[in-house]
Amino acid sequence: YDCFVNPVQWGFNDAECLKNLFKKHKINFPYFGRQTIDVKQLFSFIEITNGRSIKAGLQNAMNKFKIKFEGHSHRADIDAKNTLRFFFELLRRQRVIEESIYSIKNLKI
Length: 109
Fold this sequence. Notes:
The chain is mostly helical. It has helices spanning 14-24, 39-49, 58-64, 76-105; strands spanning 8-9, 37-38. It has a two-stranded parallel ribbon. The chain is globular, with a radius of gyration of 17 Å. The N and C termini lie far apart (45 Å). The model has no long low-confidence stretch (mean pLDDT 90).
């Protein structure tokens, strides 16, 4: 089955920048969908929920979550890898939250 691929990006237009980098280096990567998953929006949602400032670049946002940024920032390929790492951490955290909610709902008091 051919799954529809949604690129994971940090902020508006990062997926386009990465596609342009691939094109420039003649890398064939035809797996970009029309929609994207914007990790910056997910980060902003979490920060707003907790009453904190949403102002942060990728590296600072990762630092807030105790995730070490790997490489030099503001390179499309490096930023893309770190964005994906951050996304996986947010997924892991959400899974823990969901499992905790499930456990609490099923407590027999």
